[in-house]
């Protein structure tokens, strides 16, 4: 009996033991689920906070538009009057299509360096032939000396010219357009001193020196018989090419490694140079809009930290929210914080902790991944960031972060463009400056160039969408046209236009 009782006890004990074990497992499961739920909640919270911080409702965009207009006025009123430098380019004639001959150009100012040759056939024949050679700028040159940097450029040009001449025979024209995409204070169309470096360049002995003289010296050292006819910014080159093909082009925007814009301004609106400018038409103004700032810009703690860790703190605030150099890095910072605070990416000792580990093109690839299982996201996380096996749910979160970063950037570009159009009376809001009756739509073209804009279609869609949101029906008359290699080609065209007897003043 006792045995029977003992048996019951054993059975009871076993049952109790099983129940307890099941309980432990259940508790463990529940606690794991609770933990995982909390992790998700934290990750989702961080993304929601970021999205809110990056908010660009149309009301805010219109405030950015107005701030852009105010700053443009201030920058035109006096030197140092605004964070927008509104630099004079001394370009008062744009190529018109009847230029003839062979011209060269150099394009320096970002990730790639380009050497170009353009052959122009004169009236009605457009660009007959064009050759472009691109190469990345060696990292060490970006922080070297003037002599080394310009020596490198001159040697590449010499190689290029020699190759061309070995094929085509001696080429007569020796005029060169130089695209140098950093803020330069120009004193003529073919001279100017560097004001500051941007986009990771830092060559100390370049300050206060005439950039054209530096290049000219290097060309002479190489034994190259060439004359730098024009010194321009990439935006100005892009505007020139845009205008060459379509005379309604009034502005140009660059969205590549950095961002900037230029436009055609009436000379009498350039208050700071009243009396000094002799022509009464227009002049291209290089805005240097990468440095634009207004408190209406949606700034998050990630932007603040990125700025604090940058070599050019408090500078280029607009650029740091928009351009290719920074978008991937903003996304990385957000993802890293999510990794640390929520552990949804597992081990945080990964590459995600390394500044600039996520480039903007990779960010764009993840954003545009349209496979059902987001396999591009998975593979970039595995290969570039060394984080394997992230679940689909987490991949979706990554795409969301990329979307927020890109959408804000694109919408701010749109606001900037509308700001320019408003300043020159092409946004449909004010009296027409062209003598046309108010309300009559006027076709307006903005030339846009840069690897980010060219290579990232969702970004382009967001720009278009925001322009329509801000301008409504007027947007039907606004056309953004992509140019390729316009920054360099345009410099060659400007060299031609400058040397031409038949200038077409703007
Ligand atoms: P640069 O500014 O040197 O003249 P580009 O206009 O070619 O160069 O722009 C290069 C920059 O554009 C790169 O640094 C990169 O950040 C960005 N970029 C290039 N391709 C893409 C792409 N497919 N998607 C997003 N960004 C891109
Ligand atoms: Mg460029």
Descriptors for this entry?
506 residues; alpha/beta; 6-stranded mixed sheet; 5-stranded mixed sheet; 14 helices; 13 strands; globular; disordered N terminus; binds adenosine-5'-diphosphate; binds magnesium ion
| N-to-C span | 114 Å
Tertiary shape: globular
Order of strands, widest sheet? 1-11-10-9-12-13
| Residues in helices, as a percent range | 40-55%
Strand content: 15-25%
Note the total helix count.
Answer: 14
Low-confidence stretches: 1-7
Provide an overview of this structure.
One of its GO terms (cellular component) is mitochondrion. One of its GO terms (biological process) is glycolytic process. Keywords: ATP-binding, Glycolysis, Kinase, Membrane, Nucleotide-binding, Transferase, Transmembrane, Transmembrane helix. GO terms for molecular function: ATP binding; D-glucose binding; glucokinase activity. This protein has helices spanning 2-53, 58-77, 146-168, 211-221, 234-245, 301-308, 319-322, 327-342, 360-367, 375-383, 392-423, 451-455, 457-471, 486-499, and strands at residues 87-88, 100-108, 112-121, 127-136, 175-180, 184-188, 191-194, 227-232, 249-255, 259-266, 282-286, 444-449, 478-482. It is an alpha/beta fold and 506 residues long. The strands form 3 sheets. The chain has a 6-stranded mixed beta sheet. Strands 4-3-2-5-8 form a 5-stranded mixed beta sheet. The protein has a two-stranded antiparallel ribbon with strand order 6-7. Strand 6 (184-188) and strand 7 form a beta hairpin. Helix 1 (2-53) runs antiparallel to helix 8, helix 2 (58-77) crosses helix 11 (392-423) and helix 8 runs antiparallel to helix 11 (392-423). It starts with a helix and ends in a 7-residue tail after the last helix. Residues 1-7 have low confidence and may be disordered. The structure holds adenosine-5'-diphosphate and magnesium ion. Adenosine-5'-diphosphate binds next to helix 9 and helix 12.
